[in-house]
Design brief:
single chain; 7% strand; 3-stranded antiparallel β-sheet; Rossmann fold; 6-stranded parallel β-sheet; 50% helix; alpha/beta
Length: 724
């Protein structure tokens, strides 16, 4: 890794050992060694890469080309939009030295939306960082560049305050660091500093600058970004004393060029803390500012003289989290004193130094506050909190609204228990439609109604499916639906934890040999809502979802699975039908005819009756006027699939896939109806039904118990086998 040429994404893999002068040369190779805390997190996320296929899905769903699916968060599902806001809008802006660099990241979302898990992952990402160099002996892991602020002070001490001598000492220090050869005098920001002060582009000019401008000129001359310059400041008292030699090593100051550099790795505060701290909420009566900024070292009181840096301990949250991450769980519940510490750390990049030293300590870190919407609303309504709110970069963290992504979330919860073990090891079988059912229930509960689009249609559109309302030629646009929804969509609904409780309670009851089925989930969810939902309107809405949208989906889904199992070569027939349709729409596009057999050819422009039979599927409803556009859309999807995978299957387009499957199923409908009636049970029929059961188990994810349940449902439900 140390040989990578892209020094924007990588730092040294090995801990740096050496002094500050040597480190300056290494910084030229690896600017990330001294980057800001926010820049570091952005770099670590970006270098893990992106999932291009998932990015394309999300961009289509939201109508925004810039949204990416980051591999660093690959274990999360359906939260690409809020993650994009964090990475691009917040961290990306901070990386450029914009206002976001001085703001706390405030994440607001409902219970179970994944906020805590997201920041647990952020902690893990920080821990993938290369070793971080810091000034030796610094109790807050000072950025090595902080020592540049001491050039003026050290020169003044050496010169006894005489101006001419001070400038000479400054030049001597700069020479010892090799600054003249390291910095680019033509760097635009360096030139701007020198020209603004009217000084020359050499060490003489640098030595004439104020301490802040001197640091800026050097930092920019090293090719470092504005975010790095913004996040360095004067070092902590122990470093200052080591350079001046007043207390700890009295009379033995360390030269700036020779100052030793140490390295740290990120770890948690329960491991001794290296840059990652999680601060729980604090009640006003229990607030102790020492928890935030450090404490007086009582063991040293009376033993050390006034001003000795050892009189204080930097054991507060902001001390431990310097150069890294400070997470405040339910942080908006903290009292005003804690909010004031936040404001100073963000706006002034400083935190107070405990008595008896006093003063302030430079802070560079990412401050994260996560809370719920109710607490946030209460906080911002208090006018006294206006200065704090102005330093918040708020990001909504709603429930995901893509059913297929929510399904993965529910499956992830299930896999976190022993229920998910193989049945042979005591686990419980789950039918393949269970989590698809629960995901649809969860999304329906979080969606806002639309004036003209039914909720079930809106759900499918959000899920990335190409949907047309019956009787309408144009597709339902998920982008337009999202634009028309309020910012509150997804901030209320069923938590994945609530879904997990329902499914787990069934699994705990059914025992070995049976299964968790979608019917059981439907019945248990109804019981759960009646027992736990006290709001009558909300209860009515949830029960309505079960009785209407979900029962309709479940019935159609199970009919299609059952009928598919009736056809031994179902997928082969679907693929053959697809290839026939593809031949015909290509003939339509080229105004050619399709070869039927031998030298025989069909009509020019393809078999219109066959194409229309597929396209006018009741659930798809492509009109004759819309057919040319739809066929062009299919050809485009085929070309994309061919480019990506080298072959094309009938499921390359969701809408067409459903049309083809129902077309094939209609061909076996009459036979299926005969098999489903008890009066038609000949021995041959029973043998065929036994084969159907076998296929349900082997091909469709049922077990013996749930396959029998489906066969009984097919037999007992009037009109079950009709494909609508």
């Amino acid at each position: 890794m140390s040989k990578h040429t892209d020094n924007r994404l990588f730092s040294r893999e090995e801990p740096f050992t050496g002094n500050f002068a040597e480190l300056l040369g290494e910084i030229k190779k690896y600017p990330a060694m001294v980057e800001s805390a926010k820049a570091r997190l952005h770099r670590l996320i970006v270098r893990a890469g992106t999932n291009d296929a998932r990015s394309a899905e999300v961009q289509r769903a939201f109508g925004k080309d810039g949204i990416l699916s980051y591999n660093a968060f690959g274990s999360f599902y359906g939260i690409e939009a809020p993650v994009h806001n964090v990475v691009n809008n917040y961290l990306g802006a901070a990386l450029m030295g914009a206002e976001a660099d001085k703001q706390a990241l405030v994440v607001i979302g409902p219970p179970g939306a994944g906020k805590s898990d997201f920041f647990t992952r952020v902690k893990q990402i920080y821990r993938t960082a290369e070793p971080i160099p810091f000034l030796g002996g610094s109790r807050v892991h000072d950025n090595p560049l902080n020592i540049l602020f001491m050039i003026d002070r050290v020169a003044r001490e050496r010169s006894g305050g005489k101006m001419a001598a001070k400038k000479a000492e400054t030049i001597a220090i700069l020479e010892s660091l090799g600054v003249a050869d390291l910095i680019n005098w033509n760097a635009s920001d360096t030139k701007a500093v020198l020209e603004r002060n009217g000084v020359s582009s050499d060490l003489q000019g640098l030595a004439s600058l104020s301490p802040d401008d001197l640091v800026s000129a050097i930092v920019f001359g090293l090719g470092l970004p504005r975010s790095t310059r913004n996040n360095i400041g004067r070092p902590e008292p122990m470093v200052l004393d080591a350079l001046l030699g007043k207390f700890v090593n009295k009379g033995q100051p360390i030269d700036i060029a020779q100052y030793p550099i140490e390295s740290m790795y990120f770890d948690m505060d329960d491991e001794g803390s290296g840059g990652i701290v999680d601060v729980p909420e604090v009640q006003p009566l229990n607030f102790d500012i020492g928890t935030w900024i450090g404490t007086e070292n009582l063991a040293m009181m009376g033993r050390l003289q006034s001003g000795d840096p050892r009189l204080v301990e930097f054991n507060g949250a902001y001390n431990k989290g310097n150069r890294g991450l400070v997470i405040q769980t339910e942080g908006l519940k903290n009292p005003p004193e804690a909010q004031r510490v936040n404001l100073e750390a963000l706006q002034g990049r400083r935190v107070g130094i405990p008595a008896p030293l006093g003063g302030s300590l430079h802070f560079d870190g990412l401050v994260v506050i996560h809370s719920n919407e109710g607490e946030y609303d209460r906080f911002i309504k208090e006018r006294v909190n206006e200065p704090y709110v102005d330093r918040f970069w708020r990001i909504w963290f709603p429930y995901p609204l893509e059913a297929r992504q929510v399904q993965k979330v529910h499956e992830k919860f299930w896999k976190g228990s022993d229920f998910a073990k193989p049945v042979s090891e005591g686990g419980i079988h789950v039918d393949r439609d269970v989590f698809e059912y629960t995901s649809r229930l969860a999304v329906l509960s979080a969606l806002e109604p639309h004036v003209s689009v039914p909720l079930a249609t809106k759900l499918d559109a959000y899920d990335g499916r190409d949907i047309r309302q019956k009787g309408m030629g144009t597709k339902v646009s998920s982008f337009e639906l999202r634009q028309q929804a309020s910012t509150r969509e997804g901030l209320a609904g069923m938590s994945p934890r609530e879904i997990a409780k329902i499914v787990n309670s069934i699994a705990a009851e059914v025992g070995s040999g049976k299964a968790v089925t979608s019917r059981m989930v439907r019945d248990r969810a109804s019981e759960w809502f009646r027992s736990n939902v006290t709001d009558e309107e909300k209860l009515k809405k949830l029960m309505g979802f079960i009785a209407n949208e979900l029962d309709a989906w479940r019935g159609k889904n199970r009919k299609q699975v059952w009928l598919s199992a009736m056809v031994p070569s179902f997928k082969t027939e679907c693929q053959d039908t697809f290839e026939k349709y593809l031949d015909n729409i290509q003939a339509f596009a080229r105004e050619k005819s399709v070869r039927i057999s031998g030298y025989g050819r069909g009509p020019v422009g393809g078999d219109e009756s066959f194409m229309r039979e597929l396209e006018s599927d009741p659930d798809w409803g492509v009109t004759s006027a819309e057919a040319p556009k739809f066929r062009a859309e299919i050809l485009s999807a085929v070309m994309d699939e061919q480019t990506k995978n080298g072959k094309v299957t009938y499921d390359c387009h969701d809408g067409l896939k459903n049309c083809i499957e129902r077309y094939v199923l209609r061909k076996v409908q009459e036979t299926a109806r005969a098999f489903s009636t008890s009066s038609a049970r000949s021995e041959e029929d029973k043998k065929k039904l036994s084969e159907v059961k076998r296929r349900l188990i082997e091909d469709f994810g049922f077990n013996d118990f749930s396959a029998d349940e489906l066969l009984r449902e097919a037999e007992e439900t009037k009109g079950f086998v009709l494909v609508k």
